[in-house]
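Narrative summary of target 7.
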Amino acid sequence: MKKICFVVYVSNGLHYQSITGAGHFSQIGVINALKKQLSPYYDVYFDPATMEEKPDLLVVPEPFKNYFANSEENILLLPGILFVAKDAKAIKEHIDDYFAEK
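Modeled conformation, tokenized:
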């Protein structure tokens, strides 16, 4: 099973920035929705620091693309609205397409 890691928050040095912009509880909702709907298809993580191995793919909302501009990781940039709307179906389609092209 492919290991994917969603980047749903980043540290800008002073505090953490969330893709939802609505705080901690909204972030938990995004994480729970994505994990529930995508776990049957992928090994899903939300914090690369907790992973024993490198993920096969980092899924990054476009608002965070600057944080990963020079990264050599396998990265899939997706519109942030998909995360805010918790559109796991559309996110899965993008991930499936990414792996189909590889």
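The mean pLDDT is 82.
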